[in-house]
Structures are given as C-alpha cells and as structure tokens.
Write a structure and sequence with these properties.
By secondary structure, the protein is mainly α. The chain contains 10 helices and no strands. It has helices at residues 4-32, 37-58, 62-65, 71-89, 99-117, 119-128, 133-160, 164-182, 184-190, 194-213.
C-alpha cells in the first residue's frame, strides 16, 4: 500500500520540477528556436532526455558539484554566449546552415546548458525523495515533459513575436550572472554582496542586448 509519506514526496517532486523548470526551458527554447518545427522538437526531446540521463548518474554527487570551482562559472559564461548568439543569429535566413548541423549543435547546447543549470534541481529532488532511487528517477523523468512542452511553447512565441527574444536574452543574462557569482572561485575572490549581484545583472543584461543587436 502506498504510504502518505510516499505520496507527499511525489507531490513535492512534481512541485519542484514545476518551479525549477523555467530557466532550463528558456535556455533550451533560445537554443532551438531557429530550427524548423520538427527538428526543434527532436532537438529539445533528445537534448532534454540526454541531460536527464546524465542527471541520474550525477544525483548522488550533486552536493559536491556545487563546490567544484569553475563549473558554474563556465556554465554561466556559456549561458551568456547563447543569449548573445541567439540575438545575433536572429536575422539569419533559415537555410544559413545545414539542418543536420544546426540540430546536432542545438542538442549539444541543450545538454550542456541544462546540466550546468540543473544542480539545484538535482539537489532538491534528491532531498525530497529521501534517498528513494525510484523517486529520484520519477522526479528527473517528470522534468522531461515539463521542459520539452515549455521550451517548445517559448520557441513558438519567440518566432511569432521576435521582440520576446530580447526579454529571453535579458533573463538569461541574469541567470548567467547569478551562476557566475555563485561559483566557489568567484565567491572567494569577490565575496559578492546583493548590491554587486544586482549591478552585475544589470550590466550583463545591457551588454547582451547591445552585443546581440550588432552584426
């Protein structure tokens, strides 16, 4: 018989996935938005599935991942690069690069970005599961449809209303900046205060939008 504690853990994991999937969905949408609709769905699904499979393998060492210097720094810089690149590529014709190359590139973007952004998700699910590996698999598996659906919806929105890409890039600027300042190396070097975090976020948002508009 299923216990109340087990059901509570399941509900906690679903809520965690809903709350923490937003940033991941946005960066995936930015990475795949230039693909044709069919390839976009393939790239999103393959990238998210590969990232989740790797998350399962990393779940038991998730707490240590946060302490590895330069990991979040590299991830944050990568997120900033995606934000600028998407804006600069927005005016490229759809056939500017071979579809197969763009699809594989998008999958790589999705896997790397999702992994570097998902340590908090892994830790939250590992905690809510109380060490139950079945619940961990459930939580990480449930995140796939949440992220795939949300990212495809966001990609369609950005294709229909191109100005929303600037909002997305600005949000990724904040996400990337926060990741960089959370890196152990940067914490030890700068001891960032809230004022510094807000200042860095503002500078990065302006820089991304400015660089993204230049050709």
């Amino acid at each position: 018989m299923i216990s109340a504690r087990f059901l509570a853990s399941v509900m906690q994991i679903v809520v965690i996935d809903l709350l923490l999937a937003g940033d991941n969905a946005l960066v995936i949408a930015m990475a795949v938005r230039s693909l044709p609709k069919r390839e976009r769905r393939i790239g999103t699904a393959c990238g998210a599935a590969a990232a989740v499979a790797l998350r399962v393998a990393l779940t038991y060492v998730a707490a240590r991942l946060l302490q590895i210097p330069y990991l979040q720094l590299a991830g944050g810089l990568f997120i900033l690069w995606i934000a600028v690149k998407v804006l600069r590529d927005a005016n490229d014709p759809p056939d500017a690069a071979p579809a197969s190359k763009r699809l594989l590139q998008a999958i790589w973007y999705v896997v790397f970005a999702d992994l570097t952004m998902s340590t908090d998700n892994i830790l939250a699910i590992a905690g809510a599961s109380n060490g139950n590996f079945g619940l961990i698999l459930f939580g990480l598996g449930v995140s796939i449809p949440f992220v795939v659906f949300s990212s495809n919806l966001l990609a369609d929105l950005m294709n229909r209303y191109p100005w929303t890409m600037y909002i997305g890039s600005a949000i990724l600027g904040k996400v990337g900046g926060d990741m960089i300042l959370r890196d152990p190396f940067m914490v030890g070097l700068l001891h960032p205060s809230d004022v510094l975090r807000y200042a860095v976020d503002a500078v990065l948002v302006v820089a991304i939008v400015t660089l993204g508009r230049k050709r």
